[in-house]
């Protein structure tokens, strides 16, 4: 049991047995602060508390809150504040699209989250969807860092830069390397064509990696355009730095392939930062096997 701290004078005096009451409430009257040693000792009074019948003890246990109770309490704490009008480059409340491409239905969306609405700040995310060569789908998404004031600028620049690079570079690859697309459909288990297949897959992987670098280059160029703009430094209270545009970048390219893999797709991905790229087999009976992480 915890013990009261007492002075040396009190320790030398015999202890007075406490009344044998249980349970008990103890009232302690402390001496005024800053007085000398002749002040009377604290008076301690014990008063017996009414016993709680054993059968009623459970009635005093608070019940856990259900989801509706929690929501009723917390929903009023979140408020909606519009996008600030006094900041440069405001982003729309939301963007969404559902383009039908060669053999794919794409659903893409970004929306200002609950925290942004509560704080009256911009959404920091962006995405780009495009199709090249008639059947190659390019998907790019970026999540701006919430701790960076102008990460929305970086997210958009990174997506646009990576997508633009891939659209041009992939088409040039298919035009200049006639065996490139054919190699993607070769049987990787066939020793006679494995090297050709691996060469095509290697070229595709390089394009995707270079696209991520192109996204960063695009972000850097957008930073340089704004580095001396007083609108940004005024809001920050300092000069704009490239880290103020920080974001993640996720990129995927889906390519229909023929040959030994007719009806299937080769998917190339690359990722910087958190997030997830995955494929889902909607025909798989086992949910544990239906999801496959790609990045």
Annotation keywords:
alpha+beta; 295 residues; disordered N terminus; four-stranded antiparallel beta sheet
Characterize the structure shown.
- It is a single chain.
- This protein is of the alpha+beta class and 295 residues long.
- Helix content is 33%, strand content 20%.
- The strands form four sheets. A four-stranded antiparallel β-sheet has the order 5-6-7-8, covered by helices on one side.
- Helix 4 (151-176) packs across helix 5, helix 4 (151-176) packs antiparallel against helix 6 (194-226) and helix 5 packs across helix 6 (194-226).
- The longest helix is centred in the last third of the chain and has 33 residues, at 194-226.
- The protein is flat, with a radius of gyration of 34 Å.
- The protein starts with 7 loop residues before the first helix and ends with a strand.
Write the layout of secondary structure elements.
Blueprint: H1 8-12, E1 24-29, E2 43-48, H2 67-74, E3 94-97, E4 108-111, H3 114-119, E5 125-132, E6 136-143, H4 151-176, H5 178-184, H6 194-226, H7 230-236, E7 249-257, E8 264-272, E9 278-280, H8 287-290, E10 291-293
Antiparallel strand pairs: 1-2, 3-4, 5-6, 6-7, 7-8, 9-10
């Amino acid at each position: 049991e915890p013990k009261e701290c007492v002075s040396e004078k009190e320790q030398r005096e015999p202890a007075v047995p406490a009344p044998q009451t249980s349970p008990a409430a103890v009232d302690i009257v402390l001496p005024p602060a800053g007085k000398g040693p002749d002040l009377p000792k604290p008076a301690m009074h014990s008063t017996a508390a009414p016993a709680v019948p054993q059968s009623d003890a459970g009635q005093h246990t608070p019940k856990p809150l259900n989801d509706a109770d929690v929501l009723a309490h917390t929903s009023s704490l979140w408020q909606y504040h519009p996008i600030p009008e006094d900041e440069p480059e405001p982003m729309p409340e939301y963007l969404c699209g559902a383009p039908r491409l060669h053999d794919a239905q794409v659903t893409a969306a970004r929306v200002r989250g609950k925290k942004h609405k509560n704080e009256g700040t911009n959404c920091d995310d962006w995405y780009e969807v495009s199709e090249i060569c008639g059947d190659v789908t390019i998907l790019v998404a970026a999540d701006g860092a919430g701790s960076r004031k102008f990460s929305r600028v970086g997210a958009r620049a990174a997506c646009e830069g990576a997508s633009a690079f891939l659209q041009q570079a992939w088409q040039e690859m298919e035009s200049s390397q006639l065996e490139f697309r054919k190699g993607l459909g070769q049987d990787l288990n066939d020793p006679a064509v494995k090297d050709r297949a691996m060469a095509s897959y290697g070229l595709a992987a390089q394009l995707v990696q270079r696209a991520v670098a192109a996204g960063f280059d695009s972000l850097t160029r957008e930073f340089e355009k704004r580095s001396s703009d007083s609108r940004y430094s005024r809001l920050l209270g300092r000069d704009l730095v490239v880290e103020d545009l920080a974001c993640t970048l996720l990129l995927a390219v889906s390519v229909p392939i023929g040959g030994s893999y007719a009806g299937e797709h080769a998917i190339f991905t690359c990722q910087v930062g958190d997030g997830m790229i995955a494929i889902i087999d909607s025909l798989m009976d086992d949910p544990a096997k239906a999801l496959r992480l790609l990045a």
